C-alpha cells in the first residue's frame, strides 16, 4: 500500500541526495512523514507590518517597512558589520548585518524603501534587528501585496550553510504540502471531528506548515495535538483495561491481625480520608481482579498506616506483602516503625537492602521462600530475580516519584498471579497530568492531615540574618525541640557540596558547642550503618541538630523536630523544598521552615522561595512548579520522557488531554478490543506512533 509518510526525503522536489544527507544528520528527517512532523515553532505574518515605535525586545519576529535613512560600515576584520537605520515615521531602528556585505552594499542606500523581517534585540541599549530578511519594495511588483504567513523552523548552522535555512525549508515544505493533497487519509470519525471542530487530518498537516491565517495554524496544531493525545490515552486505557481483567488474589476476610492492630495497637484514630482509602483498597482486593492503585497524599498525611493495614489484610488471608522504599534510610525507618506499630503481634517482618550482608541475605531469602516472613521491607533490592516469595499477595511502593512504571511490572512477576500493587506518592500532581503519568492506575486521595497539625511557618532569610537564625535555633532547642539543617547535594558538584556541608557543620559546631549541644551529621559518602546510627541518635533525641544532605528528603519521621533550615535553598526545586518542609510539623507543636539563600537571586529562584513562603498547599506548589519548570523532571524525568510526544504538551494542553481522555474512553466503551472496521485507521496510526508505548509494553 502506498504510504505517503514513509517516502524517502531525497525524492522530494527541492531536496536531492546532498540536502537529504544534511536533513538526516541535523534534523533526523528521513522521510516525508518526518518532515511533515517537523513542525514550525513560529510564523511570521508578512502581511502584518507593525510601526517601529511598537517594536519591543520580546524575541518575537516582527515585520517592518520603511525607508533607509543612513548606511554605515562599522568595525574591522571579523567584527565588520553593515549598519543601516530604518525609519517609518513612527520611529527608527538599527538593522545590522555581519556577513554578505558585498551583496548588500550596492543595494542598501538612503531613501530606498524596504520590508524587513527579524527578531529585535537590544545592543548598546538600543533596539536592533540583526540579520533581518530583506525585501525591496521595487515598483511594479504587485504580487508582493499579500505575501502571507511564513513558517519558521528550527535550523542548525550546518543546515543554513547547505541551503537549508528557514526560508529554504519553508519552500521545501511547500512542495511537500502540494504533494500531500489526496495522500493523507483521515483517522478520526466525522462525529469526533465535528464535536471538537477539528480540521481534517490532511488539512491539518498542510496548514500547520502553510496556513492562510494564524487562526488556521492554531486549529491545525490543536487537531494534531488532539490526535496525539488520543493515541496516548487509548494505549494507557487499554493497558488499564487489560490489567483490570487480569485475575488477582482475593482477600476474603478481615481477620485477627487487622482487627488486633486497629483495636489495640493503633493509638490514634484514623482520619476520615485514611478510612476511606482503606475501604477503597479493601473493595479492590475482593473483586477477584488485580489491583493497581495509587494513593496520593501530601507529606504527613499518614500513608504508612494505610499501607500497613492493607498488608495486615493480606496477611489475614494467607499472603505475604512487601514494601519498597526509594532509599536505604527510608527502608530502615519503615522497618523500624512497622515493628513498633506491630509490637506484641505475631507478624514476622524482614528487611532487605543493598547493604544486607551475604549471609543475612541468604537466610532472609530462604525464610521468604518458605513463607516464614509476612512483610518484607526493602529498597529496589527487592526487585532482583532471586527475591522469591512463597505467596506474595500485595506489593507496596512508597514514594513513587523515584520509581518508574517498569519497576511496577517487575513486582507483578513475583507470583503466579500478579500481586495487588499499591503505589504511594506525596507528589501532588494536577489532574490532567495524573491522567497521563498514572493513567493505568486507579487513584485514591488522602486529602486530610491528622488532627492538631499546625501549618508550618516558612520564612526566607539571607546570610546576613545568620546570627538571628542561630539565636532562634537555640531558643527552640531550649524548648526541647530538634532541628534539621539541610544542604543541597547535586551529583556533578558533589565534592564542592560536601565541602559546603562540612563548612556548615564546622560553623554550627562552633555556635552550638558540646556539651550543651549534640550534633548529628549524615551524608551520602557515609556507610549505611553509620548513617543509620546517626539517624537513630537523632530520633532518640540524643542529638538536637541533624546536619545533612538531602538524604532525609523523603519520608523521615521525627515528630519532635520542629525546625527545618534549608541552606542554599535557591538550589532546590519546589517539589523538593516541599518534601523537606514536610519533615517538620509532624507533632503538635508549631514548626518552622527557614529558607536560607544569598542576597542575589535569579527571578525563578525568587519566585520559588516566594511560593514556599506563601503556601503550604502541595497542589498549589505542584502547579507553580509546573509553570516554572515545565513537566520535564516532574516525575523523575524518566516517566515524562517516556511519553514520546511530538507536538502535545501534557501540562500546557490540559484541556486537550481531558477531551482526548473522554474520547478514548468512549471509543473503548463501544469497541474494547478496537476491532471494528471504522477504528482500523486509528489503530494503524497507534501502531506507528511511539506515544504511550511504555504502557503497551508492560500490559
Ligand atoms: P506520609 O504520608 O508522609 O508517609 P506518615 O505515614 O509518615 O506520613 O505519617 C506521618 C506521621 O503522622 C506519623 O508519625 C504517623 O504515625 C502519624 N499519623 C498518621 N496517621 C495519623 C492519624 N490519623 N492521627 C494522628 N497521627 C497520625
Ligand atoms: Mg511516607
What does this protein look like?
- By secondary structure, the protein is an alpha/beta fold.
- 40% of the residues lie in helices and 18% in strands.
- The chain contains 25 helices and 22 strands.
- The strands form four sheets. It has a seven-stranded mixed beta sheet, with no helix packed on it. The protein has a seven-stranded parallel beta sheet with strand order 12-13-11-14-15-10-16, sandwiched between helices.
- Helix 10 (272-284) runs parallel beside helix 11 (303-316).
- The longest helix has 32 residues, at 214-245.
- The chain starts with 15 loop residues before the first helix and ends with a helix.
- The model is unreliable at 139-146 and 632-640 (pLDDT under 50).
- The chain binds adenosine-5'-diphosphate and magnesium ion.
- Magnesium ion binds at residues 303-304, 398, 555.
- The site of magnesium ion (MG) has 4 residues, from helix 11.
Layout: helices, strands, pairs:
Layout: H1 16-27, H2 32-36, E1 42-45, E2 62-74, E3 81-87, E4 92-97, H3 101-104, E5 113-118, E6 120-123, E7 126-130, E8 133-136, E9 149-152, H4 157-161, H5 166-180, H6 190-195, H7 201-209, H8 214-245, H9 256-265, H10 272-284, E10 292-297, H11 303-316, E11 320-324, H12 328-341, E12 349-352, H13 358-370, E13 375-378, E14 392-398, H14 405-412, E15 420-425, H15 431-437, E16 442-446, E17 457-462, H16 466-478, E18 482-487, H17 494-511, E19 519-522, H18 528-539, E20 545-549, E21 561-566, H19 574-581, E22 592-597, H20 603-614, H21 618-629, H22 638-641, H23 654-670, H24 680-688, H25 693-698
Helix pairs in contact: 5-7, 7-8, 8-23, 9-11, 10-11, 15-23, 20-21
Bound molecules: adenosine-5'-diphosphate (ADP) and magnesium ion.
Magnesium ion (MG) binds next to helix 11.
Amino acid at each position: 500500500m502506498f504510504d505517503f509518510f514513509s517516502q524517502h526525503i531525497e525524492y522530494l522536489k527541492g531536496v536531492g541526495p546532498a540536502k537529504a544527507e544534511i536533513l538526516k544528520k541535523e534534523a533526523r528527517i528521513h522521510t516525508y512523514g518526518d518532515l511533515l512532523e517537523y513542525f514550525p515553532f513560529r510564523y511570521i505574518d508578512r502581511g502584518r507590518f507593525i510601526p517601529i515605535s511598537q517594536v519591543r525586545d520580546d524575541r518575537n519576529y516582527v515585520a517592518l517597512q520603511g525607508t533607509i535613512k543612513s548606511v554605515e560600515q562599522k568595525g574591522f576584520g571579523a567584527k565588520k558589520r553593515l549598519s543601516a537605520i530604518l525609519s517609518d515615521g513612527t520611529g527608527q531602528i538599527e538593522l545590522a548585518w555581519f556577513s554578505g556585505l558585498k551583496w548588500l552594499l550596492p543595494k542598501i542606500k538612503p531613501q530606498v524603501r524596504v520590508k524587513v523581517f527579524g527578531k529585535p534585540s537590544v545592543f548598546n541599549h538600543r533596539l536592533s534587528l540583526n540579520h533581518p530578511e530583506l525585501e525591496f519594495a521595487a515598483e511594479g511588483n504587485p504580487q508582493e501585496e499579500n505575501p502571507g504567513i511564513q513558517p519558521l523552523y528550527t535550523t542548525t548552522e550546518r543546515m543554513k550553510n547547505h541551503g537549508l535555512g528557514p526560508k529554504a525549508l519553508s519552500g521545501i515544505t511547500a512542495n511537500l504540502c502540494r504533494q500531500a493533497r489526496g495522500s493523507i487519509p483521515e483517522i478520526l470519525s466525522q462525529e469526533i471531528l465535528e464535536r471538537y471542530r477539528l480540521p481534517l487530518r490532511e488539512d491539518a498537516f498542510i496548514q500547520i506548515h502553510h496556513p492562510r491565517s494564524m487562526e488556521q495554524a492554531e486549529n491545525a496544531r490543536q487537531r494534531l495535538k488532539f490526535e496525539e493525545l488520543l493515541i496516548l490515552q487509548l494505549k494507557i486505557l487499554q493497558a488499564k483495561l487489560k490489567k483490570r481483567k487480569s485475575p488477582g488474589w482475593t482477600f476474603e476476610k478481615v481477620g485477627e491481625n487487622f482487627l488486633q492492630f486497629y483495636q489495640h495497637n493503633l493509638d490514634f484514630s484514623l482520619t476520615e480520608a485514611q478510612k476511606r482509602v482503606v475501604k477503597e483498597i479493601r473493595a479492590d482486593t475482593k473483586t477477584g481482579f488485580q489491583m493497581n492503585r495509587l494513593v496520593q497524599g501530601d507529606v504527613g498525611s499518614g500513608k504508612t498506616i494505610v499501607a500497613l493495614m492493607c498488608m495486615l489484610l493480606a496477611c489475614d488471608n494467607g499472603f505475604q506483602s512487601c514494601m519498597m522504599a526509594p532509599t536505604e534510610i527510608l527502608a530502615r525507618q519503615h522497618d523500624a516503625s512497622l515493628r513498633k506499630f506491630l509490637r506484641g503481634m505475631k507478624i514476622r517482618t524482614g528487611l532487605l537492602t543493598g547493604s544486607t550482608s551475604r549471609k543475612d541475605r541468604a537466610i532472609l531469602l530462604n525464610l521468604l521462600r518458605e513463607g516464614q516472613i509476612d512483610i518484607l521491607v526493602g529498597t529496589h533490592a527487592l526487585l532482583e530475580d532471586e527475591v522469591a516469595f512463597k505467596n506474595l499477595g500485595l506489593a507496596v511502593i512508597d514514594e513513587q516519584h523515584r520509581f518508574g512504571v517498569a519497576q511496577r511490572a517487575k513486582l507483578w512477576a513475583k507470583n503466579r498471579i500478579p500481586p495487588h500493587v499499591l503505589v504511594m506518592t506525596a507528589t501532588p500532581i494536577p489532574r490532567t497530568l495524573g491522567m497521563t503519568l498514572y493513567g493505568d492506575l486507579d487513584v485514591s486521595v488522602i486529602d486530610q492531615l491528622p488532627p492538631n497539625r499546625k501549618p508550618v511557618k516558612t520564612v526566607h532569610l539571607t546570610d546576613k540574618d545568620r546570627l538571628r537564625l542561630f539565636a532562634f535555633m537555640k531558643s527552640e532547642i531550649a524548648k526541647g525541640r530538634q532541628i534539621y539543617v539541610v544542604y543541597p547535594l547535586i551529583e556533578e558538584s558533589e565534592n564542592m557540596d560536601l565541602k559546603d556541608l562540612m563548612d556548615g557543620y564546622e560553623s554550627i559546631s562552633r555556635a552550638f558547642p558540646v556539651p550543651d549541644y549534640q550534633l548529628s551529621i549524615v551524608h551520602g559518602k557515609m556507610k549505611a550503618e553509620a548513617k543509620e546510627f546517626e539517624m537513630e541518635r537523632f530520633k532518640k533525641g540524643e542529638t538536637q541538630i541533624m546536619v545533612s544532605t538531602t538524604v532525609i528528603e523523603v519520608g523521615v519521621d521525627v515528630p519532635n523536630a520542629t525546625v527545618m533550615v534549608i541552606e542554599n535553598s535557591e538550589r532546590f526545586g519546589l517539589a523538593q523544598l516541599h518534601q523537606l518542609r514536610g519533615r517538620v510539623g509532624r507533632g503538635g507543636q508549631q514548626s518552622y521552615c527557614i529558607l536560607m539563600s544569598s542576597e542575589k537571586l535569579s527571578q525563578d529562584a525568587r519566585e520559588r522561595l516566594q511560593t514556599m513562603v506563601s503556601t503550604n498547599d502541595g497542589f498549589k506548589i505542584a502547579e507553580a512548579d509546573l509553570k516554572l519548570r515545565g513537566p520535564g523532571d516532574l516525575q523523575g524525568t524518566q516517566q515524562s520522557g517516556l511519553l514520546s510526544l511530538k507536538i502535545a504538551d501534557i501540562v500546557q494542553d490540559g484541556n486537550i488531554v481531558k477531551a482526548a481522555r473522554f474520547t478514548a474512553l468512549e471509543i473503548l466503551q463501544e469497541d474494547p478490543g478496537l476491532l471494528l472496521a471504522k477504528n482500523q485507521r486509528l489503530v494503524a496510526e497507534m501502531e506507528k506512533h511511539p506515544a504511550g508505548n511504555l504502557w503497551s509494553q508492560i500490559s
